[in-house]
Automatic annotation (TrEMBL):
Name of the protein this chain belongs to: F-box protein
Lineage, broadest ranks: Eukaryota, Viridiplantae, Streptophyta, Embryophyta, Tracheophyta
Residue span, F-box domain: 55-101
PROSITE patterns: FBOX
Keywords linked to the UniProt accession: Nucleus, Ubl conjugation pathway
């Protein structure tokens, strides 16, 4: 790549800092400053094998430019790129890439707390922290598909009909601690279009607050507006089908309770802070009793935005397996 550039290299040097301080006769290379004291540089691919690399893209794309491209990828795209070849795999393991992803994902925790956590719990590995620490995925929707049996009415000599009713719960979570919630019979490809903060009132998309604990439990609260305010509290558990997937939300409980309109009007904090310390059977409106729901508790499945149109959850009821509660 730079065979025509003369470099003053001494035969023996003990540290990488000395390598950074060497003077180049040609243009300066500012990307070398990306490597910190505790961050090991990505070794050139040629040093891993004595045979020359026959791939044309590796000759046209230098290591420095490849790393610069990887810094502009999200972590999920970066994981797919690591499966392309060995050189991309080693480049994708650069700690600077995963450090930026972790600090952005857990920005509410604070930079100092994240640095202390990665040293004490994850052996100073940002990639291990990304894979093992519970985190919410924000690049799609969590979808819960629920069904129940509705008995029809007997007419004339026809037998009583039985209908299978299918509806969905949609969750979209944001790093700021806010989430959007929607219950609808619409398929995923149709519901994803209105899951944003600019949704109209007719879309019936409600906004709430959530908090994620380090053990993977999520506490959520939202307010249904209307003639009488109804407060919905949910407790979920985050898990993944593979390491680092975080693509499932198990529903532990769903509670609905009443809230006093005067108390809500004078409250300036989040809804989650309002219900902190409430009992499960506690209600602040005698006209709206507290109810613990035992139906519609199917786990949430994560669907990325790019797969919303092709997800199997768009299939009709007769082409999918469904669970009939006993």
């Amino acid at each position: 790549m730079a065979s025509d550039i003369s470099v003053d290299i001494r035969p023996d040097f003990n540290s990488f800092d000395h390598f950074l301080s060497m003077r180049y006769i040609a243009t300066d290379r500012p990307w070398l400053k990306l490597y910190g004291i505790r961050v090991q540089p990505v070794p050139p691919f040629r040093s891993l094998s004595c045979k020359p690399d026959p791939a044309l893209i590796h000759h046209c794309l230098p290591d420095e430019l490849l790393l610069e491209i990887f810094t502009r990828m999200n972590p999920y795209t970066l994981g797919r790129a690591a499966c392309v070849c060995r050189k991309w795999k080693y480049t994708a393991r650069n700690p600077t890439l995963w450090r930026a992803a972790c600090l952005k994902t857990w920005q509410r925790t604070g930079m100092e707390a994240n640095y202390m956590m990665v040293r004490s719990l994850y052996d100073s590995s940002w990639r291990r922290m990304w894979l093992q620490r519970p985190r919410i995925r924000i690049d799609g929707l969590y979808v819960s598909r629920n069904t129940y049996i509705h008995t029809g009415v007997t007419e004339w000599q026809f037998k009583k009909t039985v209908n299978v009713v299918c509806y969905y719960r949609y969750l979209r979570l944001f790093p700021s601690g806010k989430f959007l919630y929607k219950i609808s019979p619409d398929k995923v490809k149709d519901a994803v279009k209105c899951m944003h903060f600019r949704a109209s009132k007719a879309d019936s998309v409600f906004k709430g607050d959530y908090i994620l604990s380090e053990d993977g439990q999520i506490e959520m609260a939202l307010l249904y507006p209307g003639h009488r305010y109804t407060l919905v509290r949910m407790c979920l558990r985050l898990r993944g089908t593979t390491v680092g997937a975080n693509n499932r939300l198990d529903v532990l409980k769903i509670l609905t309770t009443g809230v006093n309109a005067t108390e809500l009007k004078n409250w300036t904090g989040s809804i989650l802070e309002l219900v902190e310390g409430w009992e499960e059977d506690e209600t602040h409106d005698p006209d709206v009793p507290a109810v613990s729901h035992s139906r519609g508790l199917s786990p949430f499945v994560f669907v990325p935005f790019e797969e919303a149109d092709t997800s199997v959850l768009n299939l009709p009821v007769e082409k999918m397996d469904y669970y009939v509660p006993g």
